[in-house]
Amino acid sequence: MDAAALNDPRFKALVEEERTKALANEFVAKMTDVCWDKCITGSIGSSFSRSEASCLSNCAKRYAELKMLTMQKLTSGR
Fold it and tell me: What range does the record give for the signal peptide (predicted)?
């Protein structure tokens, strides 16, 4: 790939899109690890218990809110 191709706006947009996808995947993986460890206490069956499902939902919401708050604080400090 030559230097001109690296400066192509379409290439830059594609790289940014892939970066965004990677960050989203990383976020979901981390949230899954954190919430799974916090909420799943019994053996794995065909479905979650009511308390496990509620815990997973609440944990995911809190994790997402905290991540957004953290990002806002980091970007406002620039």
Answer: none
Phi, psi for 77 (deg, rounded to 5): -85, -5
Domain boundaries, position 27: 3-77
| Domains held by the chain: number | 1
DSSP state of 77: T
What span, in angstroms and rounded, lies between the C-alpha atoms of 44 and 7?
50
* Tokens found for residue 43: 């053996």
Distance CA 25, CA 70 (A): 18
CA distance 18 to 12: 10
* Per-residue pLDDT, 78: 54
